[in-house]
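We were asked to recover a plausible sequence for a given structure. The inputs and outputs are reproduced exactly as logged, with field labels preserved.

PROBLEM: sequence recovery
POSITIONS: 518
GIVEN STRUCTURE:
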């Protein structure tokens, strides 16, 4: 009898396409909507959607894609600032088998054209504020442009709110965010439903701040992998998230205070702006509701950590290291922030890391090499770039080209980008080491160190420095400050003062731009 029941159960499972497909992004929202349909899920610019409304619009997007004649697997592109529509479009389109290529709202004409052509996107959803920019470029194979804030709502209203039955599998690609292209053309990173959902669960388990009672802020661009994950994770667990359309430090801190937010994702430039604002105005926002504050996407200077902890309180600051391709690789927990200097913590759950030398051998503790990681959060590869994928993804291990070391306790320290390392007079110099020292000078607001061509040394250490308002320091002051800590060959040979450093939308310094400064 038991065998017959088991056979019947297995037969029913095999017949159920939804069970066999595994987990896809929209399933998390659908489950939350079944539990608390009337609860407000997401807010943006005064607009809000309950879970019932969000999953209904998600299903209308799936129907809309089918009604517009898209074939299974064909790509769609989106170009928009952070907005509610971003969630429903990415989830709804991918539920119907259409990976979404993401274009940053600040992208220029050549980048827009490249991504549209490279992804072979058949539809383009563009925010009305960006329409003129899109219409001015070659749109390659795009058959139709749909305007968010324009004809999109009319098309959506005519579509049916029916759950898609497309044969989507959890390992299929749901989105293709494009890298910043710091070393060449942007690369399309294929992210699977399964990888991102597991990354969300790992984050929730690691930090315990994504329950149905938690309130989150989406503060970083959603066209990036991390920015989208920071918005979708609260929704998987039935929480609440407010999406901020753009970065404004007063709006961000005001939202924390008003919403009594419990989880906030910030980047180093956000923290710097917060500390500068409060120093200038004397106003201190009420941040006491925050349980977890995350820093990521760029290294958080050690000199900023004590002031951040003072503002948010002890036991709250987490620094995460990862990449679009690998997801979150490691996290430095609150208790280690001031104990482990310039460290990015221990590997995340289900994550393995190893440090490999130039000969392909695993290094001893505290020896610098290239960091490789392996986890279930990995990407599917680079879109239409098998050779590039093969260089970065080997036997399930991925490298973003970061140089690192691991100490005796297993903690990971990112030393620098392999491509950013300076070789001067035959000596290896890691820019981050010099930058950390410069940032301890009381007049320095931000800085970046690069190698510039030099006839004698091969490369010379060059520092670009922005000073704090009302503060003064000469190039000699800063070199002398470094000389008290660093070996002579690591000292900047030139110091150039700038108003601000060039950064991308996620706060990463664009070192290639500094190398061309005259």
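RECOVERED SEQUENCE:
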């Amino acid at each position: 009898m038991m065998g017959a029941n088991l056979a019947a159960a297995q037969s029913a499972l095999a017949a159920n396409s939804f069970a066999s497909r595994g987990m896809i992004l929209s399933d998390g929202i659908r489950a939350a909507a079944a539990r608390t349909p009337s609860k407000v899920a997401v807010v943006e610019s005064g607009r809000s959607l309950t879970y019932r409304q969000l999953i209904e619009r998600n299903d209308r997007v799936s129907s809309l894609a089918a009604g517009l004649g898209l074939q299974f697997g064909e790509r769609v592109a989106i170009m928009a600032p952070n907005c509610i529509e971003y969630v429903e479009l990415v989830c709804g389109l991918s539920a119907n088998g259409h990976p979404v290529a993401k274009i940053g709202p600040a992208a220029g004409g050549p980048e827009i054209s490249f991504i549209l052509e490279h992804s072979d996107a058949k539809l383009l959803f563009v925010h009305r504020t960006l329409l003129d920019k899109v219409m001015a470029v070659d749109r390659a194979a795009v058959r139709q442009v749909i305007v968010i804030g324009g004809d999109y709502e009319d098309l959506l209203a005519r579509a049916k709110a029916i759950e898609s039955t497309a044969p989507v599998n959890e390992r299929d690609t749901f989105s293709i965010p494009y890298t910043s292209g710091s070393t060449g053309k942007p690369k399309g990173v294929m992210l699977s439903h399964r990888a991102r959902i597991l990354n969300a669960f790992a984050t929730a388990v690691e930090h315990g701040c994504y329950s149905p009672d938690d309130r989150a802020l989406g503060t970083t661009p959603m066209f990036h992998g991390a920015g989208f994950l920071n918005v979708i994770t609260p929704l998987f667990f039935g929480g609440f998230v407010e999406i901020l359309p753009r970065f404004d430090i007063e709006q961000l801190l005001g939202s924390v205070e008003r919403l009594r937010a419990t989880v906030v994702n910030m980047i180093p430039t956000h923290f710097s702006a917060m500390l500068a604002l409060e120093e200038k105005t004397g106003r201190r926002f009420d941040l006491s509701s925050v349980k977890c504050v995350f820093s990521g996407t760029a290294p958080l200077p050690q000199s900023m950590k004590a002031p951040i902890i003072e503002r948010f309180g002890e036991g709250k600051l987490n620094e995460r290291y990862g990449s679009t391709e690998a997801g979150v690789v490691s996290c430095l927990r609150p208790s280690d922030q001031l104990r482990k200097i310039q460290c990015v913590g221990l590997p995340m759950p289900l994550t393995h890391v190893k440090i490999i030398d130039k000969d392909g051998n695993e290094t001893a503790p505290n020896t610098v090499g290239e960091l490789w990681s392996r986890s279930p959060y990995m990407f599917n590869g680079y879109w239409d770039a098998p050779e590039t994928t093969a260089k970065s993804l080997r036997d399930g291990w991925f490298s973003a080209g970061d140089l690192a070391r691991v100490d005796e306790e297993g903690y990971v320290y990112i030393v620098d980008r392999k491509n950013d390392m300076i070789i001067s007079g035959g000596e290896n110099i890691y820019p981050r080491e010099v930058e950390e020292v410069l940032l301890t000078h009381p007049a320095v607001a931000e800085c970046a160190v690069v190698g510039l061509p030099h006839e004698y040394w091969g490369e010379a250490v060059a520092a670009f420095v922005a000073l704090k308002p009302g503060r003064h320091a000469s190039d000699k002051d800063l070199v002398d400050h470094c000389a008290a800590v660093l070996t002579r060959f690591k000292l900047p040979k030139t110091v150039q003062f700038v108003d601000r450093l060039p950064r991308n939308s996620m706060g990463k310094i664009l070192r290639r731009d500094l190398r061309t400064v005259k």
